[in-house]
Amino acid sequence: MFSWSTCTRPIIVQSPMAGYTDSAYKQIVRMVAPEAVVVTEFVSTDAIFYQSKKSLKMMEFDTSEHPVILQVFGKNPERFVHAAKLAEEMGYDGIDINMGCPAKNVIRSDHGSALVKIKNRCVAMQIVSDMAKAVKIPVSVKTRLGWENADELLGFARELEKNGCASLAIHGRTTQQGYAGEANWDPIYEVKRHLGIPVLGNGDIFSVSDFRKKIGNLDGVFVARGTLGDPWIIADIIEYTRTPELYEQMTDAELDVRFPRLEKIPWKKKKPVVLRHCELAVRTKGEHLGMLEMRKHLATYIKGLPGAKDLREKLVRVQTLEEARGILETIGED
Question: Which domain holds residue 116?
Fold first, then answer.
């Protein structure tokens, strides 16, 4: 059985991202980085409770995705418990509570990051406690520094641990910051000094050198926007963690050459993965919806290639797998 506490350190996780981390994308991440942990897009516990076909479809996953974590959001403890039991029945390795989404349409209903507010903390703790008692799979939480500042973060984290939270991931921004400014990891390091459960950081990891600077005393990281068009970043971080002593004398610039980012990754390496992503999207969602979803991915995969602008204009209009394959085949391997 999966356990956050026994995972090889540091733990490298594909962070959940609405509209991106569907089954096809998680399979791609696991294909290029087999040691990674992957997390679903967040799914509404209310929608699960009312058996929304769309939400239940979002919960489907392939066995190749293990270890895979279901992330859910809401505010009703009973519906969180219902979602946790269903996740366990479906074979998920864990369930994660979203207490970090800053989107206005989410926090307006006291979901997501609104659970960190003082007025909602009793509900947040009841959700964690009830879920941890109801299932054997680990219950984790992903949150932010706080609503406006990090003053209450340590106390909040301690309460989560006390109520059965098995692992805590913290994005280094407040709710009111959204995704503006730089992520502040210092409060996350402080939380780790006081907690016994795994604590992972999140925010502004776009390269191996970013990871090296940020990992500090933490048990691992969640990598989010840095993987868009570049799932290889997770594989590179994992490779770095195997023998960090080989790279400790390298400057950040040298490390970035050793582990090139999106624009510098050879198309010869990208091409089979991009094609496979298209195939998986069609397999899991059908050709029409699958290729609609792939348009945004294709636009990021080709970033930095010669003629990228013209290619992007074509790829964001593709409607079939064969059409996408035909355009991608025109790109020279050099």
Answer: 4-262
